[in-house]
């Protein structure tokens, strides 16, 4: 049996955005409940309007309501983005590969992983995961190859063609020891190595 578990270095970067958004949201939310600030603004507006000789002074109730609505929308958007980014972090904070004569499992936590039994595997071989193909880290679609990449880092990996329902799907995933991973599957020779069109 072959197993490996990693914490992707880039997943920690996903925590920076929610922290920054939280501080910004707190500052915006403080404006909603800061009655002293509103009073001060109204007094300043009164003074400025009085100097200008205008009879109308301060914020009208409609202006104040519009201002508070804008703040609430801003806070809501920031909190939504923060929750989505935290969810992505929680789903990608662990990357794992497990292979045995029962089958293979690879990917990130939660819904971002794949599992195939040994009988479903049509072909498997060592491959390279390159930036020019996947254009980034995470779960990606390969440019030109159309294979689904579970990319934790660029470099060595495993290419898997497996049955999903009635269709054959192609995947590539990062692996620190592809040879041991493939050997753990204990597949027949006809399922090992790339076909001629894969090598072209």
Explain what you see.
The protein has 200 residues and is of the alpha+beta class. It has two domains: 6-92; 97-193, no CATH class. 42% of the residues lie in helices and 28% in strands. It has a five-stranded mixed sheet with strand order 5-8-9-7-6. A four-stranded antiparallel sheet has the order 1-2-3-4, covered by helices on one side.
Condensed summary:
The protein has 200 residues and is an alpha+beta fold. Helix content is 42%, strand content 28%. The protein has six helices and nine strands.
Structural class of the secondary structure composition? alpha+beta
The oligomerization state is: single chain
**Please, how many domains?**
2
- Large-scale geometry: elongated
Number of helices: 6
Order of strands across the widest beta sheet? 5-8-9-7-6
Distance between the termini: 32 Å
Q: Give the low-pLDDT segments.
A: 53-57
Tell me the fraction of residues in β-strands, as a range. 25-35%
- Biggest β-sheet strands, sense, barrel: 5 strands, mixed
State Rg: 28 Å
Question: Mean of residue pLDDT?
Answer: 81
| Count of beta strands | 9
* Amount of helix: 40-55%
Reading the helices and strands in chain order gives: EHHHEEEEHEEEEHH
